Amino acid sequence: MHPVGSSAIPVGPVTRPHEPIAGYYGEGTDRQRYVNDLFDSTALDYDRIERLMSFGSGSWYRRDALRRAGIGRGSAVLDVGCGTGLLAREAAKLIGPTGRLVGVDPSPGMMAQANLPQCRLVEGIAESLPVEDASFDFVTMGYALRHVGDLQQAFREFHRVLRPGGTVLVLEITRPRNRAAAAALKAYMRGMVPLLARVAGRGTQTPQVWRYFWDTIEACVPPQRVLDTLLEAGFTRVRRGITLGIFTEYLAVRPPDASPGAAAATGAPAAA
To answer: CATH: 3.90.1310.10, 2.120.10.30, 3.30.70.260, 3.40.50.150. Which one for 35-173+221-271?
Structure first.
């Protein structure tokens, strides 16, 4: 049985989603402390600003992505980095009363805003999930990959908690390849959205979380690095879908005969 909790984190090289970002925090534990404090302090405003930012389309897109990944009635789903429950809420609609839904997040403030009676919420981090081996059909993550400390260890944990044949789905926003599109998205997310947050939000830190959101998108490792790291963690059928040049869906499967932490299968991941 794999240990559950903080003792499960191995000591070794770290695969960061991005390097420390100047102006926010420094090295080591400063990142996790900063991110936790930032999300705790802005939790009351998060859902309101997200709805305004996405023009109300976010819930539809999340539900559609979950459905296309195969989530349906009776599925057992672990939502990592669940925050206020935006993705878990859509999963609950799909799995119905016969499904099982657990959300894990390091921010108590964010989870306190999630009104999800069907979802069991647990404080924890992606690199050391407080759940048992091979206990879920799906592991999901919505726009939180940039906030983990170690991609490789997080993906190993995803692999560990999935049942053989289970699927991981990670939703992310990625920087467009087109320079004009990237500049326009940056102007919107780092300029317009924080301004909107200042007007519509109640917390003094609310504009900051949306500036940080974009800066982590801009600094994040390339999608190919994410795909390669999923392969290294033991996943197969690793692929990336992309919508509108911005919205990325990383999908991967734990091999049916795999044991937790199995070595990566050979083969190149498919990127759209």
So the answer is: 3.40.50.150
